[in-house]
Amino acid sequence: MYRDLLASRELAWRLLVRDISAQYRQSLLGIFWAFLPPIITAASFTLAKSNGIINIGNTELPYPAYVMFSMTLWQTFTESLNGPVQAVLSAKPMLARINFPREALILAKLGEVFFNFGIKLILIVGLFIWFKFPVNWSIILAPVALIHLVALGTFIGLLLAPMSALYQDITRGLTLIMGFWLFLTPVVYPVPSDGVFGSIVKLNPVTPLLVTTRELATTGVVSNPQGFWVASLISIVGLLLAWIFYRLAMPFVVERISS
Question: Could you list the residue range(s) of the whole structural domain that residue 188 is in?
Fold first, then answer.
């Protein structure tokens, strides 16, 4: 596994450059697509909150900044989950004809996730300047929590990637599931303190990773360190096991799509 990971670096880089070039060359708005979803979501929910349509409760940040920051992190998680699925689907013709380390597909998508987040950093820096957030020393730890969030998404994506190459239901189901999952994640509302819904939100593994990343970058006070480390352990161990599953499953997938 380690040898194949090293051997896949050059191909992964070429795939990354190709995918990023195609992504922005075939788009009129280009990098603005990285900013539009969090801005539109924040504007919609801020308008609904200010008019009393929804009762969100108090957030540790100004509400528009809270939603934009959280939505940026959610986008990154979503991209890391969909990345392996999209990579295997788009590479099906190449998989059937060429023998190469399959890890190259995943590395290329991981590189694309972090590249896109680098663009989103422009929005985050703008939030810090506009709302005059103080910069705490804990901000240097925020990338660690972000990596754990990406690891969780990649773990789930690796489990689904081989099956998605054989069954279209996976990609269709993901669209529905991610919309419902967003509702269970404190992106547009603070973490509920009690109730059945609050318990479900706290059991959501994305919750402690996303919330801790946001807290380390802004307030510097981690509200649920135990939940963060449990979710991180699940992400890291799960990623390793999913990598093994991916390697074992892909030869059978290639055989099926080649026949």
Answer: 2-258
Instruction: Kindly state the average pLDDT of the residues 167-171.
Output: 83
pLDDT confidence of residue 35: 67
Cα(181)–Cα(205) distance, integer angstroms: 11
Taking a C-beta distance cutoff of 8 angstroms, is the pair 92, 74 a contact? no
How far apart (Å, rounded) are the C-alpha atoms in residues 77 and 149? 6
Number of domains present in the structure of the chain = 1
What pLDDT is attached to residue 259? 66
Which residues contact residue 146 at a Cβ distance below 8 angstroms, ignoring those fewer than 6 apart? 73, 76, 117, 213
Residue 2's nearest CA partner among 152, 103, 106, 110 is 103
Read off the amino acid at residue 54. Answer: I
**Amino acid symbol at 49:** K
Q: Under DSSP, is residue 8 helix (H, G, I), strand (E, B) or coil?
A: coil
Report yes or no: 71 and 124 within 8 Å, Cβ to Cβ: no
Q: What is the pLDDT of residues 71-112, one digit of tens each?
A: 899 999 999 999 999 999 888 888 878 888 889 999 999 999
